[in-house]
Amino acid sequence: MNDVRPDAVIILAAGEGTRMKSTLPKVLHPIGGTPLLGHAMRAASAAGAAQTVVVIRHQRDRVAAFVEDFSARVERACTIADQDEVKGTGRAVECGLSALPADLTGTVVVTMGDVPLLSAETLGDLTRAHVEASAAVTVVTSVLDDAKSYGRIVRDADGNVERIVEFKDATEHERAITEINSGIYAFDAAVLRRELANVTTDNAQGEKYLTDVLQLARTAGGRVAAHVLTDLWQTEGVNDRVQLAELGKELNRRTCERHMRAGVTIVDPDTTWIDVDVSIGQDTTVLPGTQLVGATSIGAEAVIGPDVTLTDCEVGDGAEVRRAEGTLAVIGAGATVGPFSYMRPGTVLGAKGKIGGFVETKNTTIGEGAKVPHLTYAGDADIRAGANIGAGTIVANYDGVGKHRTVVGRHSFVGSNSVLVAPVEIGDGAYVAAGSAVIDDIGPGQLGVARGRQRNIEGWVDLRRAGTSTAAAAHAAAQLPSPEPTPDSSEDTQ
Ligand code: UD1
Ligand code: CA
């Protein structure tokens, strides 16, 4: 029975989520870089559900657009079902069923779009327990110290689940029960369809309660079972932004743990934030204050951090990135970045290349072994293999109207404090004199000098700054004997 899968999963996501106080639908708020609903869709898909239906109503177009988009990222596409004006979880499931084949048999699992930590493994365990017990309904329950306003699990004298009573409908005695309904269930499809038709809105909230199906199924002779979960986080839902942060933190803790167990050193998981889709190779070290966001992938034996934020970046094996920010950048194997580097989209740093301190790059390729070590802006440039860009170089890529490209050839050397005014091409093996404003191409092997030639004007200080301490210093310097090399001076100054 290892390969038991749900025949369908219905994800409830029609609720309003008013406590989020947000214009964004609750189920689209992300944790770990993925909207809450995405986590639920992924769990359903990974549990091997043959079909998944997402029931929506509140802000339906925005949620539907997300479901369609995210469907492409899970193994099996999800179907959308619209809930009508009848309220309640029972009605939501009824609407979900109507999007499935009318003759569907087997196990229908119901989950919620705002419960992000529920794992595919738990869905699998639930389905297996349900099928093995030949149950009509199996409800996932937990025992809580503070059962809050959850529905309570009422058991009979023999300990069998009898029914679920909603907090608002419960007696004092029932409210004292600490076993709660997580809102996640496995149903026999036929029983679910049949009994939902018998559910009324005769309760404190005037809603069609899904929970009523349990008692109806039992009365009709079906078995109602409980699947007790001790990992309480898995059934925890998000109702407000405080819970969003709590679940986000717990998800991150679990993500960090997964990477550490796979051979990544994370020095401080408390200050390291890793999105669920990030991949990290073995023996990489992640230092405190690091955020790895989106589809970022890090190779093996790299060092990332401290204080690095990488969004949708690709980092090669053995690279080192310290105190840096990057988006849509590629960092080659063995390359070094930082501290204080800003890599904007389209930055491609070759193997063993370097982007150093106070360097900003955008849409720029830096070839293998090429170095941009200090205080530089490089935009729309091809800096080819082995080139060296001196401190303070600016690639002026924008002329106020359009952007143009700049090429620095292989093993060329750009002197400090130069401006390369695009479009301009510096050939392979060329030099740019320090302080140049380069507006014309420089050929291979040439030295380009593009600045005023130096003049030293004799006696200028005496003439223009007489009586100042500068003039006095100049006079004193003129009195000094010119230094003569002493024999064996190197030994004297040991
Ligand atoms: C429900 C359960 C309760 C359980 C709790 C767990 C019922 C009647 N009660 O309570 O026993 O302890 O979940 O969190 O089922 N939804 C819809 N359409 C609706 C109403 C809700 O899709 O008409 C969705 C919501 O978006 C949400 C989920 O169902 O994802 C649960 O809804 P919520 O209103 O939070 O249920 P509770 O009344 O808290
Ligand atoms: Ca709830």
User: What's the CATH architecture name of the largest domain?
Assistant: Alpha-Beta Complex
Rounded to the nearest angstrom, the distance between the terminal CA atoms is 83 Å
What is the count of distinct domains?
3
The share of residues in extended strands comes to 25-35%
Determine the number of helices (DSSP H or I, runs of at least 4 residues): 11
- List cofactors, ions and other ligands: uridine-diphosphate-N-acetylglucosamine, calcium ion
What would your notes on this structure say?
Residues 489-494 have low confidence and may be disordered. The strands form seven sheets. Strands 12, 13, 15, 16, 18, 19, 21, 22, 24, 25, 27 and 29 form a twelve-stranded parallel beta sheet that branches. The N and C termini lie far apart (83 Å). 21% of the residues lie in helices and 28% in strands. It is elongated. The protein is of the alpha/beta class and 494 residues long. It has three domains: 8-235, Alpha-Beta Complex (Spore Coat Polysaccharide Biosynthesis Protein SpsA, Chain A), CATH 3.90.550.10; 259-448, UDP N-Acetylglucosamine Acyltransferase, domain 1; 460-494, no CATH class. The protein contains eleven helices and 39 strands. It binds uridine-diphosphate-N-acetylglucosamine and calcium ion. Uridine-diphosphate-N-acetylglucosamine binds next to strand 1, helix 3 and strand 10.
In short:
This protein is an alpha/beta fold. The chain has eleven helices and 39 strands. 21% of the residues lie in helices and 28% in strands.
